[in-house]
Amino acid sequence: MIKLKLYKDKNDNITGFEVVGHSGFAEKGYDIVCASVSSVVWTTICGLCEVLKIQCEVKKRDGYVLCMLPPLDEDMLYKANVLLKSLEMFYDDLLKQYRRYLMKTEVRVDV
After folding, report:
1. Any residues with CB less than 8 A from the CB of 33 and at least 6 apart, and which?
2. Which has the closest alpha carbon to 14: 108, 104, 95, 102?
3. Beta bridge partners of 64
4. In the chain, what are the domains?
5. Which of 77, 78, 110, 111 could form a disulfide with 9 if both were Cys (CB 3.0 to 4.6 A apart)?
6. How many degrees, rounded to 5, is the angle at CA 43 between CA 39 and CA 47?
7. 10-residue block means of pLDDT along the chain (111 residues)?
8. pTM surpassing 0.85?
9. Contact residues for 24 (Cβ-Cβ < 8 A; gap 6+)
10. pLDDT at 111
């Protein structure tokens, strides 16, 4: 199962996310659930780091990705959340179709 954990502040801004696990939908190389999640995760990270030039904390290893925003001004937090909320919406849509293989949680953080 792939588990997405979203870190959100009191204003519902996403300040980071963590993805853990493997879906188990199909064997490696044929797993469309894993490929979909990986694609949206890395597109989001590339958008944050390369397009918006945000110095995110990014950690990765097999079956694990962590991406946390540094403190940002209101304008940059808004821009980052366009990408991060798109990630959330995409994942929510996948979750409707593949509930057996995916899970999502939210953690409130003080920023």
Report:
1. 2, 23, 25, 26, 94, 98, 101, 102
2. 108
3. 20, 61
4. 2-105 (3.30.70.1490)
5. 111
6. 175
7. 98 98 94 97 98 98 97 98 98 97 95 62
8. yes
9. 1, 31, 101
10. 62
